[in-house]
Amino acid sequence: MRAWRTRELTRDCARLRYRLSGDGPALIALHGVSDNAACWGRTADALADNGFRVLALDQRGHGESDAPEHGYSQHEYVADVLALADAENAATFALMGHSFGGRNTLATAAAAPQRVTKLILLDPPLMPAASIPCSVAEADAGRFAYFDWLRECQTQSAEQLFALKRISNPGWREDEYTSWAASKLQATPRLWGSDGIAWRPDWRPHLRAVHAPALLLRGEPEFGGLIPAACVDEALALKPDLRVITIAGAGHDLHRDHFVGTIAAIRAFIAL
Question: How far apart are CA 260 and CA 247, in angstroms?
């Protein structure tokens, strides 16, 4: 495991913590919902070893970053990413995001296409159009129902969560159970409140606006991967140069479920 430094920045009165390691061009990594920066584990270690200066952000409401009363729109998360890049003097940068973090990286690449050099998406929720909420009330209800699992996690101790995850996902590295368990207890209840995270925003306009080379890694749906085949086809129609790889045997947490296959695909892409 590499030694990581911790830094912080403040944007719009919210203190944001991030982890930094490596030298070279910047790569900003955004974790999934309820995870934290440490959850990148060996994936971040490998990319720092691969010549990147990896900046792994605790997104607002997660990890050791602040959980302000308001400010969980996708626009705010994008602004946080750009503020991190500015704080680290990264005029251009690569972006990597898992799940919810993947949607935020996609939105960032669409908002600042001139700054993003490469885009790596790990099983983001590219959902069918029919799943997009039709009203604020529907979005609020869907978000609250989805987070029932996290509310249940927060009734348990870190030790209990560690033990449960070790049983359900035996292929992870030991430190990844630790960071996963800690992150569940750090995630703020504001994520699922009425002003919580954007619930299933439409990804299509963002993908259409991406200029950078992009890699989409998906887990197998039978193991919990989020992206149905029909949405892969739709994504390719919107961005024909999109590289799509399904990581065999991996579910939604593909970088932890099948680290070797995931990091090989990422390394091949960044070498292009």
Answer: 10
